[in-house]
Amino acid sequence: MKSLYLSLFLALYVMLSCNAVIAQCDNVSVDDLINPGPFQVATLTEADGLRNGPEYNGATVYYPTDGIPPYVSIAIVPGFTALPSSVQEWGPFYASHGIVTIIIGTNSLVDFPEERAIALLDALETIRQENEREDSPLVGDLNLDRLAVSGWSMGGGGAQRAAVLDNTIAGVIALCPFLSNPQLEHSSPILILSGENDPTAPPAQHADVHYNATPITTDKLLFEIANGNHSVANTPNGGDGATGQLALSWLKLYVEGNECYCSILEDDLLDNPTAASKVEQDFLCSSLGLNRLQKVSEAYPNPAKDMINIPGNGKVQYQFISALGQVMLNGELTGNDKQIDISEYPEGLYYLIINGKTFKILKENR
Description:
The chain is an alpha/beta fold and 366 residues long.
């Protein structure tokens, strides 16, 4: 959780700007995170005309037949030596909640995480092409700007690496991930589900390391399931249903962009959860008076040393705030080449509010 000072500062922001959001959230609750969800589900395979990408081996798409498009999508890959059936239950679960899901096999059962990352990116290309295929029941119904990835074990490591390779990925769900010496410099919001007693990918050697290796500027959540083994997150029923509730809320919040799920995460699922042996979190959203982390292109570079660049035309109202909630800078910027000079401030995490949008900014002096 963020500091008390920052929380108090942002409480005022909530009162002044979030009344409409709160009203919109009255009809969304943790009781909606059921399995299955409200929508009917159908499937697509290569026999139905689905593309078979060269970087993976076979796929099944699960989709809602009575939902409200445009749909966001997620690609899922299994782990080392495992078949798609090992993670199959996620397909109908997500689809029954309005999220199109493609579950793929790998060209080799012993592919390592990097190959699985490339396979996931190829699966997303299949989703893109399905939106254009005339005979597809999903033609024109997919939001191609909101694509996510997930995977189990080495597939979970591959999902994180896919976010590094493609910075447009909107969210990551890593299921008991296995990835040695992780290089995870990406900005895709990531949920890591791990098992306390996982003998294959012990959290201290994998999930915990992955969480710490993800940049502080990236919204992230680590949920370790008490007494869980390596397959505890293979289905949405793991941890007495905690895996499905958390994963669905994460996708609803960060991929669909429904900020009502912020309060569900913070007030319901992460408030002394009985299913968890450990929780680590560093994410900001509307229950703290903050919008979802915006794309890096709207405020760059990040991390920043001297100047923060704000692209675009027109006027910009901004505030540069310390981690303790102290307003360091504020004002108005105009013109095409807008910059904020932060050179005099010490290293650390700051918050930049630009016309009501909030960014986490890491200040570095090297």
